[in-house]
Design a protein that fits this description.
- The complex is a heterotrimer of chains A (115), B (247) and C (112).
- Chain A is mainly α and 115 residues long.
- Chain A has five helices and no strands.
- Chain B folds into two domains: 4-104, Beta-grasp domain (Ubiquitin-like (UB roll), Roll), CATH 3.10.20.30; 107-237, Alpha-helical ferredoxin (Fumarate Reductase Iron-sulfur Protein, Chain B, domain 2).
- Chain B is elongated, with a radius of gyration of 21 Å.
- Chain C has one domain (3-111): 3 helical TM bundles of succinate and fumarate reductases, CATH 1.20.1300.10.
- Helix content of chain C is 86%, strand content 0%.
- The longest helix of chain C is centred in the first third of the chain and has 32 residues, at 3-34.
- The chains are: A mainly alpha (115), B alpha+beta (247), C mainly alpha (112).
- Chains in contact: A-B, A-C, B-C.
- The A-C interface holds A 20, 23-24, 26-27, 30-31, 33-41, 44-45, 47-48, 51, 54-55, 63, 67, 70-71, 73-74, 77-78, 80-81, 84-85, 106, 109-110, 113-114 and C 14, 17-18, 20-21, 24-25, 27-28, 31-33, 35-36, 38-42, 44-45, 65, 69, 72-73, 76, 98-99, 102-103, 105-110, 112.
Chain lengths: 115, 247, 112
């Protein structure tokens, strides 16, 4: 009865959800990222030791997800900045599609470079 | 078009907040609207069904209800367009207290309208000449884009931020505030910008655009709210916001 | 928090977003480039060790993130949980402080 999925099923909503979920993911990832890089304080070898964990296929998958999250959050954020700071135009509603496209392109570039 | 069912299976919300759906069989007719269906149930099956309508021609907004999950004007919603096969689900508008069955209490909706200072305040008297407002000026075009709102509550019902934050003023009240902020005759600008500022105001909008998607008059409250965000930020930076805006 | 403070918080979020747009674009490009022949400490540190421009860049990056992330988290928590008010604001301030601290430490780790 309450406003449910049937009413949420449109592009601007997916854009919002992608933006929020990616942001949350990144916010949770950051402390880990900072800790990992901080390992360099103990010397190059320690950092290298940590980096060897990233060779694992699951780690590679995680990296792809993170890059997708980062590009999704970036492109979605640019969309919001345009929606909020440019005087309203009709094409602004299609920015969600553009954001999604660019985000996937970045993810793909990363994936191709991994192989 | 072959073998279309001759009856509709209609689930209708009965009771208050803790009520439930009850099922009715309604004959399916050509060019039937959802309001026709509700009227049929009340007149022919169950006279205890409560619902609101007035003009029944898409001008007053009184008949707004949640149809198959989406808030719509039932008088302007053809069954053929929204029926899921032969099934319909009709419920009261979301985000508003339920009086009974399909009737909601619109008081919070209009209270927020007032809280957003959605009322005109002029500086002229009858002794002054008419105000001259060029219709093609940017401000007037901004106002005109949102002025057709009839306060039906569909956007408010569609907004998820309203559902998450009961204090959020909502798309209709903010849209009205935007039309007034752009009205060059209005003299209440500073207090109004203060009233729509912050976590309960325009800055809570996340551009989900449910409101724009559902507005039966094709108004974009999202556009209005974006405009307010800019103006309020500028006012905040210039120290022009009132700390305790009067109601 | 007064409405004016809330508005300025929103403004800070958008401003830091604009800065981050540039930082993230650079960072993404760097990451995509760096990962080409596998990731190694030598490769990363070779780029960042003793390099003042990278240091400046990453410090700006960290500062912007420390502003941007907590304000975003504040909205998510206020909307999707029952947590509101002063305690939430203070918690988010703490999150920002910790991100700034750990971030600066990480930047120093790859520069020094």
């Amino acid at each position: 009865m309450k406003h449910d999925f049937r009413a949420r099923n449109h592009p601007a909503y997916w854009a919002f959800l992608a933006h929020r979920v990616s942001g949350l993911l990144l916010a949770l990832f950051l402390p880990v990222h900072f800790w990992a890089l901080g390992q360099a304080l103990h010397g190059e070898a320690v950092l290298d030791g940590f980096l060897r964990w990233t060779e694992h296929p699951l780690a590679k998958l995680g990296e792809v997800i993170l890059v997708l999250a980062l590009s999704a959050h970036l492109t979605g954020g640019l969309r919001i900045l345009m929606l909020e700071f440019l005087a309203w135009r009709d094409w602004q509603k299609s920015l969600a599609a553009l954001a999604a496209g660019l985000s996937l392109a970045a993810g793909l570039a990363f994936l191709l470079n991994l192989g | 078009m072959d073998s279309e069912a001759c009856t509709l299976n209609v689930r209708v919300w009965r009771g208050g907040e803790s009520g439930g759906f009850r099922e009715y069989e309604v004959p399916r007719l050509e060019s039937q609207t959802v309001l026709d269906v509700v009227t049929y149930i009340q007149r022919r099956i169950d006279p205890t069904l409560s619902y609101r309508f007035a003009c029944r021609v898409g001008m007053c907004g009184s008949c707004a209800m949640t149809v198959n999950g989406k808030p719509r004007w039932t008088c302007r919603t053809h069954v053929a367009k929204v029926a899921d096969g032969d099934r319909l689900e009709i419920a009261p508008l979301s985000n508003l207290p339920i009086v009974r069955d399909l009737v909601t209490d619109m008081t919070p909706f209009f209270e927020k309208w007032q809280r957003a200072r959605g009322r005109f305040q002029g500086g002229h008297t009858r002794r002054d000449d008419f105000a001259r407002v060029p219709p093609d000026s940017r401000e007037r075009q901004n106002t005109d884009a949102g002025i057709e709102c009839i306060g039906c509550g569909v956007c408010y019902s569609a907004c998820e931020v309203v559902a998450w934050k009961p204090e959020y003023l909502g798309p209709a009240a903010l849209n009205r505030a935007w039309t007034l902020v752009n009205d060059v005759r209005d003299t209440d600008r500073r207090a109004r910008l203060s009233a729509v500022a912050g976590d309960a105001g325009c800055h809570a909008c996340h551009t989900q655009m449910h409101c724009t998607e559902r507005c039966p008059k094709q108004i974009s409250p999202t556009a209005a709210i974006s405009g307010l965000k800019r103006l309020v930020l500028a006012a905040a930076l210039k120290g022009e916001l009132e700390e305790e805006p009067g109601r | 928090m007064s409405p004016r403070a809330q508005v300025l918080l929103w403004g800070a979020q958008r401003a830091s977003a604009a800065v981050l747009a540039i930082c993230v674009a650079v960072h993404l490009a760097t990451v995509i480039y760096a990962v080409r022949n596998g990731l190694s400490a030598a490769e990363i540190l070779g780029r960042t060790r003793g390099n003042a421009p990278w240091l400046a860049f990453y410090l700006v990056f960290v500062a912007s993130v420390a502003v941007h992330a907590p304000i975003g988290l504040r909205a998510i928590l206020a909307e999707w949980t029952r947590w509101r008010g002063r305690s939430l604001d203070l918690a988010m301030l703490l999150v920002g402080g910790l991100l700034a601290l750990w971030g600066a430490r990480a930047v120093w780790a790859v520069f020094a």
